[in-house]
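Let us work through a complete example step by step.
Step 1: write down the sequence.
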Amino acid sequence: MFTLYILIKCLHIVAATIWFGGNFIIALLHLRAARSGDWEAVTTLGRQGGFVGGAVMAPAAAVALITGIVLTVQGGFRFDMVWIVWGLVGLILSWFVLSATLIRKAGIELGRAAQEGGPADPRVAGLHRRMMRLTFLNLAVLLSVLVVMVAKPV
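Step 2: predict the structure and record it as tokens.
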């Protein structure tokens, strides 16, 4: 039977998929451009990634948070359950600490270095490496949240 709870759960899963998938695809495109030595494409991807982060992934994270809270309350779960706590901690780490702060700052610095010294500026490669390390950390956090949400350990 299709219920409101199922609808909210579907929205939650779609939002999490968009959030993780968006981060994954942007990281993959960055790696491909950097490996080919196309630093102009890397800086363009940085600008586009900033747009996608704000216009797509942040709203998806917000939907995942809101629907997750509703599912917790409606499903009779407790907010002190390990998988719910890790979901909230992972959301804070991914969205606020990594994406909106550290990765965003590295992307801005990368764009500035490319604009000042051109794509061949040695700072561009170093800043890109830093941004990618943070991005892979973000993907690891998000993946761990997805695994914990599926496994639901007690």
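Step 3: interpret the result. Residues 23 and 139 are 7 Å apart (CA to CA).
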